[in-house]
Design brief:
This protein has a single domain, classed as CheC-like (Chemotaxis protein chec). The termini are close together. The relative contact order is 0.29. Strands 1, 2, 3, 4, 5, 6 and 7 form a seven-stranded antiparallel beta sheet that branches. The mean pLDDT is 85. The chain is 34% helix and 32% strand. By secondary structure, it is of the alpha+beta class.
Length: 155
Amino acid sequence: MSDLKEEEIRVFVDAVTHYFAQLTTDRPQVRGAYLGAGDVRPPSLGFSGLIPISGGFQGSVYVSAPRAMLRHLLVAAQESSQSDENLLDLVGEVANTIAGNARRFFGERMEIAVPVTIAGHADTIRPRCRTRPYIITVEWKGYTAQLVVDIDRKE
């Protein structure tokens, strides 16, 4: 397992910041990027979008956000329906956009799959390749979301 470099983690931080700024014109605050605890599941805040990663890399990238934050983002996107289906679509889109930006940085050896979305607390999400995935805490308009980067290069 090779650790990601600081500039590689920055790719994910920049991607999430850019996503919010483009959709809402309000930049989020990144409150920290840290390694998750070894045997503790990464956070699940209500709605999660997970992107499986393969090719020259393995693992996943996922976003977990509370319902209220996603509803606020739908309003910012001028979407009137705030159904669970639209909330799931949105969290999947956020995860997909972030993973797509990472793919542009890491190159075509990083293959990204379609998003898997989960409503409710995602007890089934576990680290796929790292015992301690990177967790990036994002705050926006008083809400907190988590971006979990659980990827590694295949040797």
